[in-house]
Amino acid sequence: MNDFLVTLENTRVSIFIRETDSFLGFPTILTTHAFAYCFIMATNMIVCLRMLGFAKSIPFKPLRRLFPVMWIGLVLTTITGGLLVMAAAEKRVPNPILWVKMVLIAVATPMMWKFQMKVFDDPAVNESNIPASARTMAVWQLVLWMLIMISGRLIPYSATILGDGY
Fold first, then answer.
1. 66-117: pLDDT as tens digits
2. Among 57, 66, 85, 117, which residue is least crowded by beta carbons within 10 Å?
3. Tens digit of pLDDT for each residue in 36-62?
4. Alpha carbon 93 to its chain's center
5. Terminal alpha carbon distance of the chain
6. By the 8 A CB rule, do 118 and 137 touch?
7. Backbone angles phi, psi at 83, to 5 degrees
């Protein structure tokens, strides 16, 4: 496994991301990763808080238009996150904080899809009859994406948290 990580870390893309002086390397990928998370978090928060009864003056069903923004954010974070991991594969892949983040994403992503289908694609659901299960899902979406953001922010500090080697 270690040989694979070393090989991954020594690809042209990884070296470019890690070692280039160009703004197109690490800074751009990290910034894109952060902005893409903003797409997910902001739109998710708007939808979830509306589902929980906040901002009742905002019409409910048109919020469905925010889901493509969430999905674009997810695709961008997946691509940029993969590139960031590749650039430091030997340190990042064994990192337990990264794996916690991956598990949280693996739970939050299908839940986000189910949330979209259950609430916004179901003609029976409207402003006055939001199912309790949808409200519960909204709370879980807020919690999961917040934990994903926090775990992502902790990854650069892994050596401080977990000790040398991370």
1. 999 999 999 999 999 999 999 999 999 999 999 999 999 999 999 999 988 8
2. 57
3. 999 999 999 999 999 898 988 888 889
4. 17
5. 16
6. yes
7. -65, -40
